[in-house]
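re the bet — no i am not wrong, look at it urself. input seq straight from the record:
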Amino acid sequence: MQGEWLRKPAGQTSVIFVHGILSSGESCWRHESGAYWPALLKNEPELEHIGIYVFTYETGIFSGSYSLGDTVDALKEHMRLDDLFASRCLIFVCHSMGGIVVRRLLVQRAMEFAAAHTVIGLFLVSSPTLGAAYADWLAPIARLFGHRQADILRFVRNNEWLNDLDKDFLNLKEARSLLMQGKELVEDKFIVFKNLPLQQVVEPFSGARYFGEPFKVPGSDHFSIAKPCDRRAIQHRLLVKFIKGMVKPDRNDANDASSLLVVNILDQSVEALHYAPRQAEVRFTVTNLSSDTIKIMQLVLNVKRREAIRLFRLPMWGAPCSEFELEADISEMDTTDLLAAARAQFVVKAGDTDAFSLTVTACEGFLYDAELVCSGESLSTPGVLFQSAAALKLTYPTRTLGGLHGGK
C-alpha cells in the first residue's frame, strides 16, 4: 500500500488516481501498449502546473478482512502524510471500487473539506453507485477467501452499506456543503473470459447516477475503459477537458478566479447589540471583480473558536436601525448555511458590489473567532468557480441575569 507523486503541484491543484478492486495503481491505468494514464496526463503541456498522485491500496485476492473502511482510512492518512490536503482543488480519478472509496471519504470528511474551502472534482470511470454484477461474479472468491471488499460490492438489492452510502452522498451533493463537480464514464461492452461473455460489470443505471451528461466510452469494457492507448483516446480527452473546466491554467496567476470574488467585512471585530444581548450585526459586501456574472452558490459562517469571557455591560434600550437580510445562530452550531433560509438567489454582475446585513445570535459571555466564506459560479462560463473568505471576531458580553447564569 502506497501513495506516489508523479509530480508535485506547482499551483493549488492535485489529481489523485484511485484504482478498483483486484487491481493496483500500476495495472489499473496501463494499456497493453505501455501507455500509462497518469503519465499521459503529466505530459499535457497546458496542465504542467497540476500535481499528479497515484494511490495503491490492498485489494488482492488474499487481502481478506481488509475492508473498504480500512481503505478509506489509508487514503486519508496518505493524503495527510503527502500534503495533498494543502491543495485547494482536489480532482479524484476513480475506477470501479475506487469511486466508492472516495465517495465514502468525502461523506466522512465533508466538514473538513468545507472548512478548508477545498474544491472537489470527481471523475468516475465505470464506478458503481449501486453495486456491480462483477461483485456477484466474485461472490465465490469473497466466500472462499473472506474477501470483504468484494462482498461489499454486491448489488444494492441486498446491500445496505452501499445503499446508505448512495443516500449519504446524494444528500451531501444536494446540500451543496462542498464545492463539487463530476463526470461519469460508463463501459460499453461485455467482458469475455475464455470466450465466455459476461454482462457489463457496471451497468449504465449504476455507473451514471450523480452528475449530468454521462458518457459511454465506445468499445470499452470494465477494464479497458481505464487504460487509454494514447492522448487521443476519448476518455483522456474528457479528463483533460474536465480538469481545465475546474481550474485556471495557472493557479498562481494574480487573476486566479478565486481572487475575483471578494468578501469584505466592514468591521471585523463586532460586539453584541446593546438592545439585544444575544445578537450581533455584521455588515459585509461581496464584490465581483471578474468579467462574468457570478451566482453565489454558498455563503457560510464557520466558528473556529469559542471562548467564555468575563465581560459585563449594562443593558440599554434601543431598536434596530436597519432591516437584516441574513440570520445565523451559532449558540451551538459551528457552521451555519446563511442561504438555507433565504428566499432569493443572489447574483452579482460584473463590477458590482452587493451589501448584506447579518444578524448573528449566540450566547452571552462568549467570544467567537469566525470566518465568513462565500463561493460562487460563473453564469456565463459554467464550471468556473470563485471563492473568498474573511475573518471575523464576535464578542458577546454578559448583559442580563440570564446570561450571567448561562441562560440562552
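see?? The chain has two domains: 2-246, 257-404. told u. also The longest strand covers residues 294-308. so pay up
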